[in-house]
Amino acid sequence: MSDNHSAEAANLLEVRGLTKIFGTLKACDNIDLTVGKGQIHALLGENGAGKSTLVKMLFGSLEPNSGEIRWNGEPVRISNPHMARKLGIGMVFQHFSLFDALTAAENIALSLDDNTPIATIAAKAKALSFSYGLPLDPYSLVGDLSVGERQRIEIIRCLLQTPDLIILDEPTSVLTPQEADKLFETLERLRLEGKSILYISHRLEEVKRICDAATVLRHGKVVGHCTPRNETASSLARMMVGSEVLTVVREPAEGMDKARTLLEVRSLSRKPATPFSIPLHNISLNVRAGEIIGIAGVAGNGQGEFFEAVSGEVLQADANTVRIRDKDATRLSITGRRKLGAAFVPEERLGHGAAPRMRLSENLLLSRHATDAKAFLGAGGIVRDKAIAAASQRIIQAMDVRKSGPDPEAAALSGGNLQKFIIGRELDRQPAVMVVNQPTWGVDAGAAAHIRQALIELARKGSAVLVISQDLDELFEISDLIAVMHNGELSKPIPIAEATLEKIGLLMGGAEPGHVEVTEAEVA
Amino acid sequence: MRIELVKRPQQSALYSALSPFIALALTLIAGAIMFSLLGKNPLDALYYYFVDPLREMWSLHELAIKAAPLILIAVGLSICFLSNNWNIGAEGQFIIGAITGSILPVMYPDLQSWIILPLMLIMGVIGGAAYGFIPALLKTRFNTNEILTSLMLVYVAQLFLDWLVRGPWRNPQGMNFPETRNFHQYAILPEIWPSMGRANWGFVFALVAALVAWFMLSRMLKGFEVKVLGQSPRAGRFGGFSASRMVIFAFLVSGGLAGLAGISEVSGAIGQLRPTISPGYGFAAIIVAFLGRLNPLGIIAAGLVLALSYLGGEAAQISIGVSDKVVRAFQGMLLFFVLGCDTLIHYRVRFVGSTAHKAEVSHGNA
């Protein structure tokens, strides 16, 4: 390759032997990567495979321990993001860095180095956004925008600096299927203009659809380069995971109509707690014994607020809005609701579901000190360490939690293993009602399959399970019914047999199919 | 150039354990430098300051007298600080505890019975706790910053005491001196071992409080609740613990213990109320709490160290003629080094700016 100068000229970015070591962990080990001009190149890998570390080195936020980066054939050292931008590398992060209280144009101005007046920036941004099919009002407040629109600001902000290489980190994880389609059109246009795109994802279907080439990472190493169009989703998955991925088995639930409702939410409304949180409008939902109801929706549409209201972390003013096992739980705290047989798993693992600096056994006590008081506490509230240690060993074995040391701090576990522990902590109680927010967010495929199977088994044993997730594939895999949350409202649950990706996608975007049909009929 | 603190991925367990000792050593070195700048022989000065007071039994008793309030207050503060409540007003709670505890012997001197002393102690605890309840209530109801409110209430308490002893509570037979009448025999906290020295039961209270708090923090659900809410409030709420109830609990406990320290000091060591009843115990106890790593057993040791700094200050004043303000300087240096060591265990210092620039320039040339 190095002898062939014409080939080198066609390559925008070449990475050779790039290595990054954190302590004893090789986050990136001898990575090779070549991105051609006008190419959409996928970077595939599970969580923790080293994708983020790699792109952070390309964008100058991290410095490699060894290895070489060549830009247009020239070796470069990218020591900070400012330099990366000067070279022509732009990045759209997975987690946006936008100020809610400022307008889109003001947010863009903040990232530019010169003192261009806001009006000029706004005009430029508007023109750019329309020409790429990403319409955006530059004077709208970020706080009022949907997640998809916020992502547009990030993309426009990146494009304004006319980069040659755009790095997109999991861009579709916050989009509805329809919004994602739009984004793909934009990416196609950018490719036609000769721009290169490094596309990070673990969604295989979309990689197959839009990417010209792919580099697959596993445990910090490159395990293969391939052309995604010539691969199948399962062959890509095998490369990513390194072994056959467990498929989740879901037997159809029977006799559901007669089953008893275990969790009932009746016209739940909630005012926004902060100026930028989502109010909930009149949410009603019944979850019966033996079934899993999935709640789909783009992040930030009220899922977190809904979870807090159902779990009892925040209490409702009106009586009878939450009923657990036929008892009014509205005025009960989270402890009271747990005692009625409910269990909860929040979205955030560290700092919400678990205290990061506490040991696993202490984190077991965190959510079960009231329900298992007899087993875990002695007279006068003395903690019984032995009983708790035994129970936490039981959970660790049942869920196959991998860890260093007998009882490590929660923060020392990988995301997937901690999530297995947190889910296992609740499953171990055999709860009658289980409410889970984002069960497998940021969890590797093996652990995700394990968690999903465990949730299905819990339901088949007669519990009511409510799963809130942004991952549609996951919901289609495990749910009996899917409802969609949009802007603080919840659609009617659709039985899985009738649910299609398109239907759910439309609801996620805010359409009400029933409503549309009526108006069409009226017009006809 | 800019100096940045970068979080270390993991903290050295060895240095965490050594940190109070390193801080003590650094304080001694800095103290030696200070003494030589004052024109004194540093070794002599340090000897009179830190060794001489430990050589006689009576002065060990004096050490216990000084250590008792420091330990009592610091034990309460450790519960506050562990639960992320920053009570800086223990000095005020100490004073109010001393005042409420003194109501019986000052206003009803004719009530003389063995029941008086226990009542005084209880009233001292209640007074301190009630005074601590004010910043707690303000924090939970109005979201005020407890650091400011608790600190400001210290000055209110100091001026209130000053007014009391000069005005309504002034001793009628006291030649117009600003002090209350002397407490009668039933209102005096007895000495533990009168033949050996003056140390009173306040020191025993301090040891008992430390042991009880240690047991609660390490073995009981309540202690778990304190730590969870302090480290990770959202996880604590998820666990079903109430953050606002914890604010009130922490302030009531620390206020109550400070109040007990106050009434023990007045009824044990002083025997009456005066315009000033504390050489800053409430503030020094903050140093004690951190020097003891917020662990009640560590606090016992740390309390003795700080008590030594008070005794040493008095001794050094007499024997080598340095100002009593040296005590404050020592305590300040000790807190500075303790916090400094702890910070450097969690963070490392990085200098940025000039080097990053150079890299960019060199690349520009290449």
UniProtKB/TrEMBL annotation, chain A:
PROSITE patterns: ABC_TRANSPORTER_1, ABC_TRANSPORTER_2
Protein topology in the membrane: Peripheral membrane protein
Cellular compartments annotated: Cell membrane
Signal peptide range in chain numbering: none
GO MF annotation, one: ATP hydrolysis activity
GO CC annotations on file: plasma membrane
Similarity comment text for this entry: Belongs to the ABC transporter superfamily.
The protein, known as: ABC transporter ATP-binding protein
Organism: Borborobacter arsenicus
Taxonomy of the source species: Bacteria, Pseudomonadati, Pseudomonadota, Alphaproteobacteria, Hyphomicrobiales
Automatic annotation (TrEMBL), chain B:
Record has Chaperone as a keyword: no
One Pfam entry name: BPD_transp_2
Designated name of the protein: ABC transporter permease
Subcellular location field: Cell membrane
Coiled coil start-end: none
InterPro entries, sorted: ABC_transp_permease
CDD domains: TM_PBP1_transp_TpRbsC_like
Transmembrane feature ranges: 12-38, 58-81, 88-108, 114-134, 146-165, 199-217, 238-263, 283-308, 329-347
